[in-house]
Amino acid sequence: MPSFLKRSPPRSLRQAGWLTLACMVLAVFSLLPLIALVVRGFVETEGGRLVLTFSAVKTVMSQSGYWFAAWNTVVVSIGSMILAAVIGVILAWCLVRTNVPFARLLEQLATMPIFIPPFIGAFAWVLIGAPRIGLFNLPTRGLGLGEPLDIYTYTGLIWTIGIYIAPYVMMIVASALRNMDPSLEEAAQVAGLSRVRTMFQITLPVVAPSILSGSVLAFVISIGLFGTPVLLGMTKEIYLVTARIYLELQQFPPSFGIVAVLAIYLMVLSVIANLLQSWALRGRSFVTVTGKGFRPRIIQLATGRYVVAGIIWLYLLLTVVGPIIIIIAASVSTYTWSGRFTWNNIAFLWESEDVRSTLWNSLFITILAASATTILGLIVSWITARTRMRGRQFLEHVVLLPMSVPSLAFALGVSFFWLWFPWSVYGTVWIIIIGLIGRYISYSVRSITSSLIQIHPELEESARISGFGWGSTMWRVTLPLVLPAIISSWVMVYSIFISELSMVLPLYTTSSRTLSILSFDTWAVGEFSLVASLSLLQLLLGVGVMWFVTHITKQRQIAAT
């Protein structure tokens, strides 16, 4: 055989092929459903044919209610982002870089809000801070001091959403702190900087990519959140864009054109946030992991560690333990605050055929979707952070687009897109899995990329010089270094999927119902005690998997040492 036939394709051609394949896969998962949503919103069917129309745009632009919803979304989302970033960064630093007692346990508890379905967490805060029935207000009203806490306000919305998304920021920043070379802080201390100045001048600037990634992620989660704005905001007519989308979908027939235009509002907000992040990081280097071995430096707080631990425990009591106790109390009550208790709601979990079937569907969908999302996220992160392929930035933008669209609207886009195909995907668990991957792959990309850019390419270059191929280098060098971020990514998306409601709502059928749908249906008929028991089951599923993954990771670390 001639020698030129044995030659492999040029490297640039192979890279272009892989990039094209990645773009095609992500287009099917993420981009085409958005296009289908927008197209469906700007066309109407007349006489069996599609007709272009701008009636939805005119309606949205001309009515003040939609403008107020957009303004409310900006105010609440920025407030929630700031609160989540402050809480997340402080928790990550205290639990990763200091000798706070029971840091591992505190970190696991701090992630608990992720595993509580948003509308259940919001309902728990209704029982705590509602003007008439809130447990916090009952004693003050009895003492004639009025009702100081009102959860149905902008502040209540910001607080409830902020503490719900703070764990996402904490997980991303904590992963970056574990990968940070402590010699930078040690050099600052030798130069005379105090611990506080070292933290503000060295630590925080170095992990700036992770802080910005976590903040932008918190912002886009806030603008796309569905359960909390509907439950808390609509009570006093504080409508956010997602609430207006929900109201439009309740119309008969649903106003799909208006839903699409409102989704574009959110896309614009997300694009602005991502552009600001890119501008802030442009031209700066954040490499902190090189060929030099190191271990994360633990800062000794002396007796102050107990004070810090006490503050963290108080925060967890208000944000995690309190709402969970409320849910537990409701799950063993005949009805909320009845004062009479029963185990029937707990027995319902293993006696009901609905629970067994939806539990199987939830685990199958969640585990498969979380694994596929993390693998695709790793591939995209490596292409954008480790190659110089032309068009790689386009790949990242395609991944980030679904972040700006509320799950409810994106799910509609998925249904519109796959209804055009003859394949029997619609009405099965597979369309839910496809929708979850397309909607949330960007979360995995952000989590993994923030750690990948901290790893210097010299480590991989050294392996290649030593004779390792690309696959061996990836498996033996890159993957072990970014393993904490990969695990955090998987746990993050798993925790979202196990309690996802708005994404599943337009896509499920009777054979593909999940626990979140069963909880929503039960909540809609006013059986909150049963909803609370279902929430406990979802909480156990989330915490159990998190504990298992953490245990396996810890055993591997012990074996490695």
Can you give me a brief rundown of this structure?
With 561 residues, the chain is mainly alpha-helical. It is built from 25 helices and 2 strands.
Q: What would you say this structure looks like, in words?
A:
- This protein has 561 residues and is mainly α.
- The chain folds into 2 domains: 15-52 and 351-560, MetI-like fold, CATH 1.10.3720.10; 63-281 and 298-341, MetI-like fold (Orthogonal Bundle).
- Helices cover 73% and strands 1% of the residues.
- It is built from 25 helices and 2 strands.
- The chain has helices spanning 3-6, 11-41, 55-62, 64-97, 103-110, 112-115, 118-129, 137-142, 154-178, 183-190, 195-206, 208-224, 227-233, 241-249, 256-281, 304-331, 344-351, 353-386, 392-400, 407-419, 429-452, 458-465, 470-498, 515-524, 528-560; strands spanning 43-46, 49-52.
- A two-stranded antiparallel ribbon has the order 1-2.
- A hairpin with a 2-residue loop joins strand 1 and strand 2.
- Helix 4 (64-97) packs antiparallel against helix 12 (208-224), helix 16 (304-331) packs antiparallel against helix 25 (528-560) and helix 24 runs antiparallel to helix 25 (528-560).
- The radius of gyration is 25 Å and the shape is globular.
- The relative contact order is 0.13.
